[in-house]
Structure formats: structure tokens, C-alpha cells
Recover the amino acids of this structure.
């Protein structure tokens, strides 16, 4: 997705603290990822947001389904684009919603709590060279954070998920207690993403109302409407108004 770049910047454009012992933290995360791939035959990805690179470890599942090597490093991106290339855009939109929701939920927590949660969703990824889709349980967590609250390292995992006819929404889990965070809690964070005025404007945009008509309806200038549109696009980390409407609908904001 074009707007996926905006979401990635949430993590790679943070204000990092150079005093953090990132090398030690990175080696610990890589050891965990390698162990996960060996134990489950799945895929584990360590995202180094400060250096904008990722380390991908793959068990036999990843090697068979996606033709991944046992280990590879991508120095051009902190995100596993080689895996995302096996998904269609609609699947990535679901992940976009989860990542945006998770980031905003974590942002409101204390530094000590930020690494206590993970977020999971089901993705459909295509096998290399064919149209056969495989259901995957995708889980992401922030492995380590700096003293100033920025996320240094992320850890994502992928394992096969039994096929089900029921749609499963993304969930956020407390890794210390095993409890699933209630929808009311993270949806409360969702509702703070946009201001009341921005939600009014986005709701009208979703109905196909033109900017001039919105300005007249809300008794504001068209310049103000356009400024709010740009702020909405930036906040939801998308590239255009249509994408903003789609993300907002999936998050039940409008």
C-alpha cells in the first residue's frame, strides 16, 4: 500500500536516545527470534527501528511457503517487506489498522508497561509461485523501549493458523497476565486519535460531500476544511482521503 510508508514512519522517525545499549538489546532480540523459528518452524522478524533494518529468521514453514532462507538481513527497511509481498492489499489494510491501533494504545502507557503487550491478527499469505493462500497468525510486540519512550526494537512472528470460516479481528494481549485487552479500552484510545471536528469532517467526506459543502455546513472556511483533511491523512498514516475513510470505518471512528 502507498500509505504503508506513513505508518512505518511512526516507528523509524522516532526521537531515539543514543545512550541506549542497542547492540545488547538487538542481540537478545535476535536470539529470541532464532529460537522461535527453530522451535515452531515459523518465521520471526526483528525490526531495528533506529538503524532501519530487519533480521528475518525462518523455519521450514517459511522456507517452504515463501522460499525464505534460514536467515537474512534487509538493510533497506526495518519491516519484512519480503513477507508482505505475499499478501494482497486488503490483508495489509487489516494489519495497518492493528498496527496503528497498537501504537496509539502503547503510546499512552508508562515506559515500564510498553513491552508487556502483543497484538495479533490473521493474515492470508500466498505461497511462492501459486495462488494458494495460507492462513497465518501474525503477532507483533515491542521488544524494547528507550528511557524516553521510543520503541527501539520490534519482534514479529508468523505461524500457520487453522482455517476458519469466522473472521477474527486483531487483538491486543497482556503478555504478563495472558488477558486480552477489552475492545472498549483500545477503542477508547482510537477515539482520541482524531478530534471531534476532524471526525465530523471525515464522516461527511465518507458520504461524498464536497469540501465547499462541508465548509458551508460547518460554517468554517474551505481552507480550514482542507487543513483538517491533511491532518486526518497524516494522523491515520495514509496517503489520501479515500484511504483515511476506509481506515476510520474499520476502526469504527465514523
Amino acid at each position: 500500500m502507498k500509505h504503508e510508508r506513513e505508518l512505518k514512519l511512526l516507528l523509524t522517525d522516532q526521537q531515539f536516545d543514543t545512550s541506549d545499549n542497542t547492540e545488547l538489546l538487538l542481540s537478545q532480540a535476535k536470539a529470541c527470534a532464532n529460537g522461535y523459528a527453530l522451535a515452531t518452524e515459523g518465521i520471526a522478524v526483528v525490526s531495528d527501528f533506529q538503524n532501519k533494518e530487519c533480521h528475518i529468521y525462518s523455519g521450514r514453514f517459511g522456507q517452504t511457503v515463501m522460499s525464505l532462507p534460514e536467515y537474512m538481513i534487509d538493510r533497506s527497511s526495518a519491516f519484512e517487506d519480503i513477507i508482505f509481498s505475499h499478501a494482497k492489499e486488503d490483508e495489509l489494510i487489516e494489519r495497518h489498522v492493528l498496527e496503528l491501533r497498537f501504537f496509539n494504545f502503547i503510546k499512552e502507557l508508562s515506559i515500564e508497561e510498553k513491552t508487556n503487550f502483543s497484538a495479533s491478527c490473521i493474515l492470508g499469505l500466498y505461497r511462492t509461485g501459486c495462488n494458494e493462500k495460507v492462513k497465518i497468525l501474525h503477532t507483533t510486540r515491542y521488544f524494547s523501549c528507550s528511557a524516553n519512550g521510543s520503541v527501539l526494537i520490534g519482534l514479529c512472528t508468523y505461524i500457520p493458523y487453522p482455517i476458519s470460516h469466522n473472521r477474527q479481528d486483531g487483538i491486543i494481549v497482556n503478555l504478563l497476565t495472558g488477558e486480552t485487552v477489552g475492545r472498549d479500552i483500545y477503542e477508547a484510545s482510537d477515539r482520541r486519535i482524531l478530534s471531534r471536528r476532524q471526525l465530523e469532517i471525515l464522516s461527511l467526506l465518507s458520504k461524498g460531500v464536497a469540501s465547499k459543502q462541508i465548509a458551508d455546513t460547518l460554517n468554517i472556511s474551505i481552507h480550514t476544511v482542507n487543513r483538517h483533511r491533511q491532518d486526518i491523512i497524516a494522523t491515520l498514516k495514509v496517503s489520501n482521503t479515500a484511504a483515511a475513510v476506509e481506515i476510520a470505518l474499520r476502526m469504527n471512528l465514523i
Notes: The longest strand covers residues 133-145. The beta strands are 43-48, 53-58, 71-74, 117-126, 133-145, 151-160, 171-174. DSSP finds ten helices and seven strands in the chain. The chain has a mean pLDDT of 88.
